[in-house]
Specification:
about 210 residues, mainly alpha
């Protein structure tokens, strides 16, 4: 029987199972044959001995396969433990360097965070300026239209009604736009605060 290793252990266990099954099958055939003979006792005894020998071989093969698998697992565990020990030693040696790198990274992250906040503030100011300019332009157009409508309304009463309706819709539109712009500005502000809070949480978590 070839040497059993962890690699061929599954095949060896399968072979042992096949041997046991074949031994039982042969025994059944031998028993049926012995029953046709005059001296059945000796015939059955020999058949039982052959089956027992095959079963012993199968059991030995199965035990050897289990042993090989167990030793392989133990070797892997020992290797894993050795790697852990080696990694712990490497960590102990490299900790000062890692701490220095961490401090440098933290300083860089703080600088990047400040830059992002400044950029967000600048964007917010630009957005506010645009909102004010757009609002002024819209109000100017509304006033121009109002004056035009007022002139037409003097001649045609229906124009006055239409003008009022347009002014009402335009005013509602302006309010909606302004509300969206205010919401957007608040969203930018909130996002900046969230980013700062997240950076603070990361810094606190990393320091633990």
């Amino acid at each position: 029987m070839p040497a059993i290793t962890a690699d061929n252990a599954p095949a060896a266990k399968a072979r042992a199972k096949e041997i046991r099954a074949a031994a039982q099958q042969r025994f059944e055939a031998d028993k049926a044959d012995c029953n046709t003979r005059m001296l059945a006792i000796g015939c059955l005894s020999a058949a039982q001995d052959r089956r027992a020998e095959s079963v012993r071989q199968a059991e030995a093969m199965h035990r050897e396969a289990i042993r090989a698998e167990r030793e392989a697992r133990e070797a892997k565990l020992a290797e894993k433990e050795a790697r852990h020990v080696s990694r712990d030693k490497d960590d102990e040696v490299g900790r000062p360097v890692a701490e220095a790198n961490y401090r440098g990274q933290e300083a860089q992250r703080a600088a990047e965070r400040e830059k992002r906040q400044a950029d967000e503030q600048a964007k917010l100011e630009i957005q506010r300026g645009k909102v004010a300019a757009e609002r002024e332009a819209r109000l100017r157009k509304i006033e121009e239209r109002r004056l035009e409508d007022a002139g037409r309304a003097a001649a045609v009463p229906e124009n006055a009604r239409k003008r009022a309706e347009r002014e009402r819709k335009q005013a509602e539109k302006v309010k909606k736009i302004e509300q969206r712009q205010r919401d957007y500005a608040e969203k930018l502000k909130y996002r900046g605060a969230e980013q700062a809070a997240e950076e603070a949480r990361r810094t606190k978590a990393a320091a633990k």
